[in-house]
Design brief:
about 120 residues, mainly beta
Length: about 120
């Protein structure tokens, strides 16, 4: 866990190796606003350039378990339940760019502010 999209909020700084993994997330999102605007045309036969901006607030509760059958003592987060709570916000631009700002606390009571960005390009 900790590679690519297998991330539990609050554990962004950790990579937890194991042979099996279970992850459960519960999200509650509230749409704050949505803004749509059409701009000028570059060419006569082309459609107008459109701009869309969406903002939402987020509450997230996550839990995960990583099973490591080799019991490596340096991998102290394996073979135990991991859980975290997150408050945050998201800003989406044209469904192509997403910027997330999260305040998370994990089972170790480590609090952190994390910035995530996602792009379809």
């Amino acid at each position: 866990m900790g590679y690519y999209n297998n991330i539990v909020y609050g554990y962004e700084y950790y990579v937890i190796d194991g042979t099996h993994m279970l992850r459960v997330e519960q999200n509650l999102r509230y749409k704050l606003f949505s803004y749509h605007k059409s701009f000028f045309k570059i060419l006569k036969n082309e459609p107008r350039i459109k701009f869309k901006l969406d903002a939402s607030a987020l509450v997230n509760v996550s839990t995960a378990y990583v099973k490591d059958k080799y019991e490596d003592p340096s991998n102290e987060l394996a073979n135990r339940f991991l859980y975290s709570a997150t408050l945050g916000g998201e800003l989406g631009i044209n469904n192509a760019q997403k910027l997330q700002l999260h305040l998370s606390v994990n089972h170790r009571r480590e609090v952190g502010i994390f910035v995530h960005s996602k792009s379809t390009f």
